[in-house]
Model the fold of this input.
Amino acid sequence: MARYVAYFRVSTEKQGKSGLGLAAQHSLIERFLPDNDEVIAEYVEVQSGKNDERLELWKAINHAKRNDAKLLIAKLDRFSRKVSFIASIMEQGIGLVVAEMPNATDFQLHIFAALAQEERRLISERTRNALAEAKKRGVQLGKNGKLLAERNRKAADERAETLRPMIMPMVDAGLSLSEIARRLNGMGIATVRGGRFYPEHVSLLMARFRRRLSR
Done:
């Protein structure tokens, strides 16, 4: 029986748009896991993929080391697209397993990461060129995106406020994130995208509560 520590990464701004949010990552890992294998812990990073400061990742790595487990991720690009970053993690002496490509060797993961890194560079270059051309034509850049982002933020804040009276009493009672998610699902309450609650959804909501209080 193999033991795994699962690591998930989401970006709060892009989670809903990317199609690679928590539910999708959970589904990939659930489909990958054989019946006899076990996920002994889960860690979630709310962080941009461009940022290598990954506190939760290092917690996951240390947890895996202490329990002779492998680090399990859903997709390589949810982990990182930087070859140097992936190589540094592999040097920690733990097995890295990607649910989307479970039979990939370390060498193949390096190759896939190199291809993804080059793809990101080309996309960035094409985007910069397109924006430069648009600016020459007098196009006002970023206006629609800012309006959409503000509208989405307000909608998420409003949704969070409707859930606060249900969630905070459970938090005050000392219930775990997993138990809170289970109870929300049992009450038939869906996430903002209409899916099931996972512990990570509850964690993100609590972070939103804290941000609202600090404003």
About this structure: The chain has a mean pLDDT of 78. The chain is about 60% helix and 10% strand. Residues 18 and 152 are 14 Å apart (CA to CA). The first strand starts at residue 3 and ends at 10.
